[in-house]
Write a structure and sequence with these properties.
88 residues, mainly alpha, elongated, 5 helices, 60% helix
Length: 88
């Protein structure tokens, strides 16, 4: 398989890279292997990007994080309508 060297600057958050480096060292992987695996997964299952974004956006460590995926995705107008129907 041929390889491609990308000569573009990637900007990553230092804290994120430090945390990922520890995990990768424990699993005996490097960043190149992980990115290649990630890209292969995207090719086979493009929806994986949505799943990963949901995991990243999920809040943890606070009370409001407990409510993730527990509250419906209703818009404000629907909630207001339901409230007024309930009180009348």
């Amino acid at each position: 398989m041929s390889s491609l060297t990308i000569q573009k600057n990637f900007n990553f958050e230092k804290d994120t890279i430090d945390k990922v480096a520890i995990i990768l060292n424990n699993k005996h992987h490097n960043f190149t292997e992980v990115l290649n695996t990630y890209f292969q997964a995207i090719i086979k299952e493009p929806e994986i990007i949505d799943t990963i974004e949901q995991k990243v956006k999920k809040r943890t460590g606070s009370f409001i994080g407990i409510l993730d995926n527990k509250i419906g995705a209703e818009n404000y107008k629907d909630m207001k309508k339901d409230y007024h129907e309930h009180i009348s």
